Amino acid sequence: EKFEEYLSIKSLRDGRVTSSFSFTTLLRDAIPRDPRTLAFDDDTSQHYTLFPLSLGQILRQYAITEMHLTLNAGKWNYDTWGYPDEPDVGVGAELRAWMAGDSISSIDERWQGVRNALAGLFCASLGSLDEQRTTSPRLSFPPEGALPDWGLPHELRHASHASEHVCTENLTPFLKLLPCKSLSGLATLLNPHRIFDADWHGIGLHVLWRPEGVEVRLNVQLVFDPLRISAQGKQDWSFHSLFDRKVEKACPVASSTRVSVELPNSGVYRVYPEPQEIRDGKAYYNLKNNNEAWNIGTMWPTDFEYRICHAALSSPDPALVPFSVTRNLLGPTQDRGQLSIVLTNNQQDTLQLLYLETMPWIVQFYLHTIRVHSDNVPRDDLISNISYVLPVPHARPATFESVLTLPGRSTLTFSMDVAKAFLRYTEHPPDAQRGWDLPPAIFTPLNQSLNGSMSLGSRVYTPSLLVDLATPDFSMPYNVIIFTCSVMAFIFGSVFNVLTRKFIVVRVRPDPPRNQSVSRTEKRLEDTDSDTSNELNTSKSGVH
Amino acid sequence: MHWLSCRKTITLCIVLRVLFALGLDFYLSPPTSYAYSVDNGDKVVEFINNGPGLLSASSPLTLYANLKESLWLYQRGVDPYGSGIGQVGVSPLYLAFSFFPTIAESGPSTTQLLSKLFGIFLWTAPDAFSAWFLVRIWKARASTSTKSSSSSITFVLPLIYLLSPYVILSSLARSTSVWENAILLGAIAWACESESEFKTKPKLNNSNSKSKSLLFLALRVHLSLDALILLPPLILLLLGSPESRLAEPGPFALYVAKHRSVKKQLEEKLPNEPAENQLRSTILRAALNVLFEFMVYWTALALISTLIVGHWRWMSTTWGTSLSLPSMTPNPGLWWYFFTEMFDHFRPFFLVVFNVHLLMYVAPICIKFQHDPLYALFILVGILATFKSYPTLSDHGLFIAFWGIFPEVYPYLRHPFPTTLVLIHSALLQPLFAHLWLSHGTGNANFYYASTLVGACAGGMAIVDAVWAGLRIALEKHGKGELKLVEGEEREIVTQQ
Questions:
Q1: Which of A222, A311, B252, B325 could form a disulfide with A198 if both were Cys (CB 3.0 to 4.6 A apart)?
Q2: Which whole number is the average pLDDT over A283-307?
Q3: Angle between helices B2-28 and B109-144 (to 10 degrees)
Q4: SS3 at position A411
Q5: For the segment A492-507, what is each residue's pLDDT rounded down to a tens digit?
Q6: Are strands A17-28 and A2-11 parallel, antiparallel or unpaired?
Q7: Which residues of chain B lie closer than 8 angstroms to A371, CB-CB?
Q8: H-helix or E-strand containing B41?
Q9: Cα A282–A283–A285 angle (5° rounding)?
């Protein structure tokens, strides 16, 4: 077993600072459990020293080969922040697992089990990642590690819940999985007060298998804004200013504790303390070496200047990501709308993107209305390889995967009409008027290598959408039941009343002239069966 | 001569409506404003479905967008029925017409105009058929009666149907219900014209009208299951006659027995048995034959559908939908808000109640109006329009147009004016309240619910009045011969006091 800590800190273009912690535990020579042994209880005994036992038990019990769980808050701004160190930055909770299984039902049962177990472990509402949110996209989530060759097919289960919020109660159990908790090592810096104050924050758990063993990687990713807290408008940061803590001592069981600081490209700055090593534009520190308190930081002599101001004047900075994307749900009404995606290719080369939507059934796609425009010219040929799994109302989300081709330096517009569902009143969340958070769409660049095989680039998550669904009146169930039943009963009663009656002529005058007997004024139409009709009585009293 | 004029009326109305649809299309998408226009008149559909026909013009089962989506998926090899449960889908038979929306999606403007015209024609033609069938039903009903004073009906009937805003809205919204209406009216028209061993009058050269009628009803039931409740009156109509006998009520067998040829046949066949028993068994046998033929057609259509899509799951998405109401999309009916607001544990119970409620009318109405099965059919059409799970405006349009066939009951209606007012009230409020709720956000679901409730009241009032008038007419027409009997009853009542 080997435990490693690593922290990477980078100053961003807009003055923010991103820091990415990763705590990696490698369990050498371990292999995930073969699902065929689930029938027997004699699993290998679990004795770990560094590997988190509570997590290991879950992995063994449900025979998980690979698993990724992320809890994020905020919108990752690819255009100014670039790619994140950990690619899974979709807002809310996202869980996906690769499992092998003989039959699908067994996989779904284990998927449900692992959801609930993780929900208990992390105090997060992962139990709500149920069948209504579970999909199995074909291409977008390849296994990051290896899959053991048991002769069984491996299947992916993916679920995301955009309105799940990450908070202290998720961080505490997260820290408990670390061998040193937050007592020593880099985890000391994980101060909840500062983490959840960050502009963007997310925690993640990644379990994967490589031939050398099972690897568990816990990571925390944060984007701080030093400009916000700096009185002078300076970009300066240090451990102390960001986390309100310093690394007092290294974690004794960690085989390595390293920090890297990405050095700015230009300008005058000072990185302190003096880096032990500078390589590829990064300053590296090994915190294992000495036992003094570490407070790594960077200082600038001048105030931060927003480079956006320069962009209009001189040549803008090269784009950090090959393409940028915005996704919107248009339309003013609550019964239908239009999903619109605008993609801009920042490169000269043609770009192929794998586009994935995992949409809850409350928003129904109309694929026949897909329109693709490239620089306002219709180009329906730019979308290909559409695969679509239909949603099941009240049960299953839709999965839509396709490949979009972006010509170099162009803007591609994708639009599709959607229908918004009308829900039963019990299906609405307690704050129904707020709307529903829709999971982010995921774009993955397809890189064609020289030998013709396709490889997937880094995933890009769009921000989540909020859809405004029509709501019934929640205070009305009894009224509606009463009104509708009354109208139906009234019509039913009237129809059957008329149907079961017999029509006869009741003469009002005692001796009508025979010839005029059918004139209308002299007749009353009454019922022979019911003998106590008021009209009949009054007419009779008139007679007598 | 009248026949020719009726055709002229229909042609004129259709031309007017095609021109109207074209004009609306040009108004909504002027050819100059869009260099690239992909719609085949979809702008009009969108305008209707977001405007005057919001929620009411189409139900999820008849929505044009759902039809196009199913076709699109089917053409690309995706099963439009998915796993089947809870899905809302169109009948697989529509998928056989998968060439419809693809004609000249983008091309030169002349092709576009042609495809637009084709689209408009495709959704106006069924209305022309419907009007024509209505006239034929009327002719079959009127031909036997001695008085031919109301031949002007043949002009009025197409007008009522073709210029009814309900029908026009459904047609402009390209709701498949206009096809369903045409198919149902075709079934009824052929049933009226069919020959049977009990029919009293010689017919035109229409020897297989019965099969046509049953085939069309099977098709209609296949497209949406609710029409199944129209099967019993249609069987009566096939065995009996469409002529107006409201004034002379009596058992169904009585009318059949009146026919001399039937009597003769019976006497020749079995001279010893009592005639009544023979007659009954003969009618029963004929009815079972008809039922069997219907089942054969229905099964055949189901098999064809299964062949088209390759599995049986389409049944739960098309037929199951109208029974189990998976989609709570508002419509002019009574179901949607009731089941939106229903407590989950009572949902199955009330689904059964609502379905049984529809079925419950069939037997009493067929029994009471056995002397005039067309009238029973008419009332059941009204009940369907009011009480079925996914009604649309065109169902109401059909019910309203049907009133034109029964002019003899007008004098006996108790409250035609209030019914009309309530109907207009609801018709005007429905789009308004739908907009206030869904577009403007200034109203809520209760507004639209209230307007549909008023609409149901109007439908209910019309049904009750139709039943009343249909029974009341018998008393009036009894004539002086039976008045004595009635007077005797009257004395009984008086003596009871």
A1: A222
A2: 80
A3: 150
A4: strand
A5: 999 999 898 877 776 6
A6: antiparallel
A7: 38
A8: none
A9: 135
